[in-house]
């Protein structure tokens, strides 16, 4: 069984890399793989704090210098942050992940070892879209999307105290929440471009808190968990 985990960069590297979290996450991966020799994981790693910081610096330089910080250039800055984070995750996975970090989800044909690690591909979307493409390629029916929120809300709870948590939502309603367009550094539960493709192929996405490793372990084991299930309704 192959499970795709979109590992938010804000968990791996909220500002810089979080070694304590990564050690605990590695221990969870070990337990998950040891429980069943047929299990495999695809870990798609985001850019996190470094991506946002470097993109912000680029925008500030552009403003001070009188040129436009094009979205494509901002995306490339963020993509490079995902690749550094992914290389770190691959390194901690050791022999489980013998392949190079995947940077083009359409170009990989083989899955060697127990863990495949991927990063950002090209401008126009986030690593969530790469996770959807890899799920499609390797026959996974679910993408586990880990971020710094435990559930999807009807609105941003940081700015709207009336926002309500959602346990389950169909793709049509979810896409109405997140819109249709992607912009670099945008903080959404799941990328609009990834959402469009996931809805087209009938993929199930679970959004959950990445730092709650006990909850993640239950989710991966098929037990009761806290999170939001997005899928065909």
Explain the layout of strands and helices.
Layout: E1 2-7, H1 9-12, H2 19-35, E2 40-45, H3 48-65, H4 71-93, E3 115-118, H5 127-137, E4 142-147, E5 152-153, E6 165-166, E7 168-170, H6 171-178, H7 192-201, E8 204-209, H8 213-220, E9 228-231
Parallel strand pairs: 1-2, 1-4, 2-3, 4-8, 7-9
Antiparallel strand pairs: 5-6, 8-9
Folded structure, characterized:
With 233 residues, the protein is an alpha/beta fold. It has one domain: Acetylglutamate kinase-like (Carbamate kinase). It has eight helices and nine strands. It has helices at 9-12, 19-35, 48-65, 71-93, 127-137, 171-178, 192-201, 213-220; strands at 2-7, 40-45, 115-118, 142-147, 152-153, 165-166, 168-170, 204-209, 228-231. The strands form two sheets. Strands 3-2-1-4-8-9-7 form a seven-stranded mixed sheet, with helices on both faces. The longest helix has 23 residues, at 71-93. It starts with a strand and ends with a strand. The mean pLDDT is 90.
Q: What's the gyration radius in Å?
A: 17 Å
The arrangement of helices and strands along the chain is EHHEHHEHEEEEHHEHE
Percent strand: 15-25%
Integer average pLDDT: 90
CATH architecture, by name, is 3-Layer(aba) Sandwich
In one word, what is the shape? globular
Number of domains: 1
Helix content: 40-55%
CATH superfamily: Acetylglutamate kinase-like
Strand order of the largest sheet: 3-2-1-4-8-9-7
Largest sheet: 7 strands, mixed
Secondary structure tally, helices: 8
Strand-pairing-aware structural class: alpha/beta
Q: How many extended strands?
A: 9
Low-confidence stretches: none
Oligomer status: single chain
Distance between the termini: 24 Å
According to CATH, the fold-level topology is: Carbamate kinase
């Amino acid at each position: 069984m192959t499970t795709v985990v979109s590992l938010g960069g804000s968990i791996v590297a909220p500002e810089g890399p979080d070694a304590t979290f990564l050690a605990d996450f590695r221990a969870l991966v070990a337990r998950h793989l040891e429980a069943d020799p047929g299990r495999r994981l695809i870990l798609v790693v985001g850019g996190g704090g470094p991506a946002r910081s470097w993109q912000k610096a680029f925008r500030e330089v552009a403003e001070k210098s009188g040129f436009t910080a094009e979205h494509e250039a901002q995306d490339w800055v963020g993509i490079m942050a995902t690749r550094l984070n992914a290389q770190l995750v691959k390194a901690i996975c050791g022999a489980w992940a013998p392949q190079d970090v995947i940077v083009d989800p359409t170009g990989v044909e083989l899955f060697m070892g127990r863990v495949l690690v991927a990063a950002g591909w090209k401008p126009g979307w986030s690593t969530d879209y790469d996770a959807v493409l890899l799920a499609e390629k390797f026959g996974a029916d679910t993408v586990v999307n880990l971020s710094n929120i435990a559930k999807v809300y009807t609105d941003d709870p940081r700015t709207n105290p009336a926002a309500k948590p959602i346990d389950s939502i169909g793709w049509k309603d979810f896409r109405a929440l997140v819109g249709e367009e992607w912009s670099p550094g945008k903080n959404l539960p799941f990328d609009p471009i990834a959402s469009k493709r996931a809805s087209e192929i009938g993929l199930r996405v679970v959004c959950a808190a990445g730092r709650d490793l006990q909850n993640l372990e239950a989710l991966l084991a098929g037990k009761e968990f806290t999170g939001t299930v997005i899928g065909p309704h």
